[in-house]
Design goal:
- By secondary structure, the chain is α+β, with helices and mostly antiparallel strands.
- The protein has one domain.
- Helix content is about 40%, strand content about 25%.
- The strands form two sheets. It has a four-stranded mixed beta sheet with strand order 4-5-6-7. A three-stranded antiparallel beta sheet has the order 2-1-3.
- Helix 4 runs antiparallel to helix 6.
Length: about 180
Amino acid sequence: MKVNIKKVICIIMIIVCIVAIIVCFVKNKNEKDINEEYQPQEEISEEQERQTMISLYFINKTTRKLEPEARLIDVKELIADPYTVIVNLLIEGPKKDSHEKAIPEGTMLINATIEGDVLKLNFSSEFIDNHKGGKEEEEKTIESIVNTVTELTEVNSVKILINGEENQKFKDGEIDFSQNFIRNE
């Protein structure tokens, strides 16, 4: 009987060893799977890596309200002078047929500088001379600019200059540019 007990103990020990080896093998395999780097299904092209989404605000032709229009632009364009690039995109106008630009035709951005959290935008005289007029349209023009550039975290308000001069105003005198303009939500 002693021989049978020894055989049973040996068989149990062998089974325990086999189970332990199997458990270690399975556990080690699972850890390898977890540690392997994730490979995306589709590779991201260099072109996609360099683009970022920005929002430009234009007037909806039907509702006459400002609406954002998303644009993908190359990050390299924004690095040197993001303010000039973004405002010039506003001046160029919308891509959607349902939108119209708020900045008057012929307007040019002379320069854009940031001082603290105030973005100073220096426009050509066409900004005033070619504007349709009317307080509501003038407000939309200002809001279009302010809403667009305040999407950038460092800009909290906008100061508008005309040909380098402060304290100008639209032709009808409804809105003057003596104060900084802030975003209205």
